[in-house]
Amino acid sequence: MHRKTFASPPSKVALFVTCMVDMMYPQVGIATVELLERQGVEVVFPEGQTCCGQPAFNAGYHEEAVQMATHFLDVFCPLLEKGDIEAVVVPSGSCGAMTRHFYLSLLQDAGIRSYPARAEALAAVTFELTEFLVDVLKVQDLPCGYPGKVTYHACCHLLRELRVDRQPRQLLRQSGVNLVEMEGSAECCGFGGLFSVKNEPISTAMGKAKLQYVAGSGADVVAMCDVSCMTHVQGLMHRQQSRQRAMHIAELLNLRSGEVHDTRPTPSAPSSGAPPVGFSRRWQDIKVEDDHAR
Amino acid sequence: MPVDVGADFKTRVKQAVTDPHLAETVTRATISLTLKKDQRYAELQGQRLRDETRQMKTYVLRHLPQLLEQFEQNVQMNGGQVHWAQDADEANRIICNLATQKDVRKVVKAKSMATEEIHLNQHLEAIGVECVETDLGEYIIQLAREMPSHIVAPVLHKSVDDISQLFAEKLDMPRTLDPQALCAKARSVLRREFLNADMGISGCNFAIADTGTVCIVTNEGNGRLVSTLPPIYVAVMGIEKLVPTVQDAFLQYQALARSATGQKVTVYLSMTNGPKQPEDVDGPREFHVVLLDNGRAQMLAEGYGEALMCIRCGACLNACPVYKQISGHGYGHTYSGPIGAVISPLLARDMAESKELPYASTLCGACRDACPVQIDLPGLLLALRQDLVERKAMPRLEKAGLRQYADIMQKTGSYVRMGGMARAGSRTLSRMSGGTIRMLPPPLHHWTKTRDMPPFARRSFRQQWAHRNRTGEWEKT
């Protein structure tokens, strides 16, 4: 697979935010934008973007996946072709793998003219966030103010499709957080997209095994590069009132010391099993009632 | 309670994941096998071995018809007989006929996945021939009347205690947790069987086209006894087990021993060229090879040929996080784990019969990284899923759902509208349970059985981005 190398770091990139971040975790998108802007990179957000089509593709529904893939390319490719952007950055290993690896064969099989070539051109400049920060921008340090212990879960598509592993670990190490290694860090958390619903008992059993590894590491946060796996791990942790929690790496790295505050529940608080330290943007801290007051 | 392999997929999975010890036993064993394999690959140029093995297997698939004919000629020249079996029925018929003609009463068997695949024992027993499995693991499985749960280690799902209990029941042996004592007991029983057998049957780990040689690898020496003591020796091999030359055989041997059990070489490598010659000290009077197709040629024709590069080392099972949870029996077929999820539907007459298997994977890719031949197992699973969808084997509702999803996602406007509706719905649901969703409507209720779900954000990223574009700063949240 052809990868573009840049003579000088790209100054303008398009954010492929992913539908899950857009709709469920805007704070991860905001953190991604801020991390990039802090490095002097201008970020544009192509507003036409929706879902990359991975759920349909992984389930075997190629016709439907092609529909979404062509829409995606129609949104992003003109920007690249006109020279408006130099790269695409995505805060997800699995959506990145979909557009970078699987689009080409999907569109070749579908036999739609011009799209395979466009997919290839876009793939050459598409980067997962940590990969872009480390390999392209050569970021040396992103000091992070998180005071607790962090462990890293390597999401499968990032690790075994995009082969990105050194980059997020390097960023975490250089950020100054207390990084501890966990056993089984490269073992799947059991999410697997529709697998989590179709094969719930297996998915849950795998997730519980992952939770044990996290607990065994002594970390209070497990950081990862995909909000999908994060939703699975965090969803299990939250149901089990676990002391640990899952976080997207962008949000963690974007925390500066002033932003960290202790939200340990007071003894009278009903949720006694809540994690020891929290951040206002975490979903389990969102008070829905407050929204209405606004 | 053991997993009932005859039950449907859902039941098998439920039995496996609710077993209090199964996942722990399987996880411990597979992690240890994986570690040993990694050590054995690290001490040489592991990637080179993987590349060369793959190159060789690619050559074999491209020249399969010629190699098979070359192999047949050489076996015949050595005085052996070759039988071509198109499917399981034909293979069973050939072997049962042979047993009847030669008045065979007792068969000793070395470990063979091919004979498991065709359920040979049942067929032989139906005509009154007693079959005795002589591989220790297979012997235990036979005593327990179970199916192997692993390609290489058939009793991987059992603890020493389980086996001790079984031996106490079936062999009237006092309870002991000493593996050596259990092993010695099996050995004393089996030794008598070897001496009384009329026919030996084994599988084949690889066969050399250039010389007409069948090779079996064991650590117990039972393969040697099966192939030399009884007067008739029958080897059953899948047609993909061929290698071109002796050199290639040692390449595959190297990959197999290191991947399967983390050994540099196995304790025994038994090679049979043909029946006993006048100058030989031992060997069978008759040597037969059954070449088993049973769907393999069709796999090659339908674009699934890569699955035929498999050398049956079990490394993908050991690496698989799904296998750790449901064990081999959860898959319900002779071949389990990632390779089983690929070939079981393809070996069946109708792939829709086991359509759950290609979906019983998160596509995490650990299997592909573990495979000594670098078979793209996730890619094959994806291809099978596509095939199942195109054959309309999947539920109509699923198709309708994904169709609608794609239609929504194809237009930005409908995506944003749908997002707004989902936000309203999910926030209503979350409000009922203190800010997070604890119950979702079907089919998503499977998610909330064990996992909470956050509601959609009050303001999407794109809304916040638009606000920032207008005002120059993010919304205050």
How would you portray this structure in words?
Helices cover 48% and strands 10% of the residues of chain A. Chain A has 294 residues and is of the alpha/beta class. In chain A, α5 packs antiparallel against α6 (115-124). The model of chain A is unreliable at 261-294 (pLDDT under 50). Chain B is of the alpha/beta class and 477 residues long. Chain B has helices at residues 9-18, 22-42, 46-62, 64-77, 88-101, 113-117, 120-126, 136-144, 160-170, 179-196, 222-228, 246-260, 296-301, 315-319, 321-331, 337-347, 356-359, 366-370, 377-390, 396-409, 412-431, 445-448, 461-471; strands spanning 81-85, 106-109, 130-133, 199-202, 206-208, 213-218, 232-238, 242-243, 268-272, 286-292. The longest helix of chain B is centred in the N-terminal third of the chain and has 21 residues, at 22-42. The chains are: A alpha/beta (294), B alpha/beta (477).
- Sum up the overall morphology of chain B in one term: elongated
Task: Kindly report the oligomeric state of this protein.
Answer: heterodimer
Largest interface: A-B, 77 and 73 residues
SSE pattern of chain A: EHHEHHEHHEHEHHEHHEHEHH
Largest sheet of chain B: 6 strands, parallel
Q: Tell me the β content of chain A.
A: 5-15%
Query: What is the distance, rounded to the nearest whole angstrom, between the alpha carbons of the first and last residues of chain B?
Result: 53 Å
Strand content of chain B: 5-15%
Number of helices of chain A: 14
The radius of gyration of chain B is 26 Å
Structural class of chain B: alpha/beta
Which whole number gives the mean pLDDT of chain B?
A: 96
